Structures
1.
Amino acid sequence: MDADEFLNEYLFSVIVTGVFGYVFSGQMERKNPDGTHEILFPNGCVKFYRMDGREEFIFPDNTVYQVDPSNGNAILFLPNGQKEIHSSNWKKRIYPDGTTKTVFSDGTLETEYPNGRIRRKDSCGNLVFDLLSSTATLQGETSGLSRLV
């Protein structure tokens, strides 16, 4: 066998361009001249290994999943314009209108709105505070609104 090899129960067909495929799974791999390693899956997904260490996975619906090697954060770009960031301590979703929702590892939920309003709830869903500019509503207050100076 000159161009075909039998390795780990998969038959590889190596082409001069560096493209080879796993015959039994339908998966194709390509090593590009710039050093990028690309894996094409039969369901339409594509996985890239970049030279700088980043991993990128593109789903058929154009959702993009990236892993940042510098801090280990995972970033998800959704087709509807939303962006989601996962770290070891929190998960953050950024909406196209500028609203940001963050869920912390202790279950605390914080929502930041484009107008500057910040709302925080504890892990049980109880309102901890709701701030709009210099106006705040604090849990346990009977007056409703108070000025923070």
2.
Amino acid sequence: MRSYLERMDQATYLGPAPSTAPVRVLGALRDRMMNLAAELADGAHPYNVPPEHTAHAREVLGADKLLAPEVAVTLERDATKARELGRVHLAIYMNLPNYTKQPARSWLQRRRLCRWWQAIGSSMRWSGGAASSALPRW
């Protein structure tokens, strides 16, 4: 990725000059990509992460970089339905290598992955006055 970004910076651009410099934000989940975003980009866009990840990402990026995490929400007021919506939303990620490849190396890491998914599910919030007891119990 570093090489790609460096070559992108050196590439000849033949289109009309933009009125402002384009903003470069990298999709980043782990520290290595976050560090690259801090060094060669304007910020990072972590996707599908719990709030604790956002706090850590801010530490890695520093205060002067853009941090735009994806935050999944539902307006469903019924806690059971909201949990099911959350499970459906998160299900596809369980098979994507960028979310699973590192933790899947051992049974212990697999347990950590399950806890990570539980943390994401548990960090979901619902509007409409849903009490904290309505948070998912995965």
3.
Amino acid sequence: MRIAAAVEDTAVGAEAHIGMRLTETWLAPRVRPAWVAAGPAFEGEQMKLSVLLAVNAAIAAAFGLGFVLVPAEVVATYGVALPAGSAVVARLFGAMLVGQAVLSWQARAAGPSEALRAIVLGFFVAETLGFVLAVHAVVTGAVNVLGWSTVAIYAFLAAGFGVFAFGKSAVTAPA
């Protein structure tokens, strides 16, 4: 009888806890900084800034290393021949992407601050300009159809950083 009562109390306690958690999660907004989404990587339609920064770091590292190590081969996949002199510029671009990857990876754990806001705003500007330039390259025929993948990557990152720069989840420094 004691065991049955303990199990019943545990079950009631669990139901109350689950019920409270569901109510707290679904009906009442949680109090947390605006730049952090609750729960796992996605809660509803909102992405955590740390996940966006990690995705940005992975993309920047992959392309950056490609441009640093084998720029002619990377550019050739887009249907563009890379003259010898331009390989230097491509490698410099790759070096900047590797630096962006390191900055993005390190910023994942940063708390709300003016520095994090500046990083997010800088990434938003860079990704937005990249989007515009990539669309121009595809539309003018400067690159082949694979250029649309670059447009999609820049669009995703620009939109994501735009949300954290200006949207409802904007990064703000603590008061």
4.
Amino acid sequence: MMNATRTTLVALIAMALGAAHALPVVQKTLPLGNNTQGIATDPGLARVFITNFNDGTGTAVNVNALTVDDTVPIGANPRRLIADAAHHRVYVVMATTPGTLLIADSAGAAGIVYVPVGNNPRSLGANLPLGEVYVSNLDSNSVSVVSAATSSVIATIPVGTAPAGRSGPASCARRPRTPAAGGGGRTRARSPPRPRRRANRRPRRSAGVRSRARRMRWT
């Protein structure tokens, strides 16, 4: 979490786009808004997106020109965000009560959509091949499942107390599991399988050894 009152973005192009494994070099430092909370990249557009929590704004940075493209108001308390590089969309959770999920076109060509979710959403993840985005609602003790195709909530799943979580790679996120009945909102964890112990068996004798043993018993 970036909590400086006047934060700056260090433009590490090699790290942001995964283009090299060499030691990163600071190429430029760009001024941003106050109390930045999240960052996401769209490599296809060569753009980086940052949320400025205290200012209620979002900043877009051009990583080729190393310049700030724009800083625009997006609503109160923008926190975590993820970028869908395949469809050039940005998803931002707005930590308000009631909370919303902001969906915007990362190329700046389309309008902004606000999807109502639970109270005080704090983080999000996604299964983008499945077309679903998952928002953790801290004060509602739930997870909202949002359809990327329809920009609407298709399910609200009760979970444990005060789910916060952290935004992970969009391609690695999974659909939350439905809690087991009577489990108090918790999913049952399975114990890892125990390794099988091989019994101490006597080595098998060859056919020749067995036949000689039978002959010896009859002599």
